[in-house]
Design brief:
alpha+beta; two-stranded antiparallel ribbon; about 50% helix; transmembrane
Length: about 140
């Protein structure tokens, strides 16, 4: 069973400093606080743990309480902030798509107008040549 000892440990997590209560593990030594590489959660562990074969008393326990809850809510707030930013970007992309579609429509209309103008120029040129041949 783990006991609380007086004092606290200052731990750095994502450049935020948090304070957790000191604990003693089953062998009586003061626990160390480590961070899980996979999910970033903090946990207490036996300081005598070196590797899988030399684990000290083998004690491990999650750091829980108001500080760890505050970190989880910070992470949730950060996630909500990022999701809001992503939603804003998606909205801008949708608006850009509408603008690009309007530009494509205008280019298509311009292409049709250019083709009609080219036809007019050709007809005008043919008429000019006919007029020149007939009256000169």
């Amino acid at each position: 069973m783990m006991e609380e000892s007086s004092g606290s440990i200052d731990v750095k997590k994502n450049s935020d400093s948090i304070v957790v209560k000191k604990r003693k593990c089953q062998c009586g030594a003061e626990c160390v606080v480590k961070k899980n590489k996979n999910n970033g959660e903090l946990f207490y562990g036996c300081p005598l743990w070196k590797n899988k074969t030399d684990q000290g008393c083998g004690f491990q326990g999650l750091v829980e309480g108001e500080r760890s809850t505050a970190l989880k809510s910070f992470d949730t707030k950060e996630i909500h902030r990022l999701l809001a930013a992503i939603n804003s970007i998606v909205q801008l992309l949708l608006e850009m798509n509408i603008v690009f579609n309007k530009i494509a429509d205008l280019l298509s209309k311009m292409n049709i107008m250019f083709a009609k103008m080219l036809q007019c120029v050709i007809i005008y040129f043919v008429m000019y040549l006919l007029f020149k041949c007939l009256y000169m």
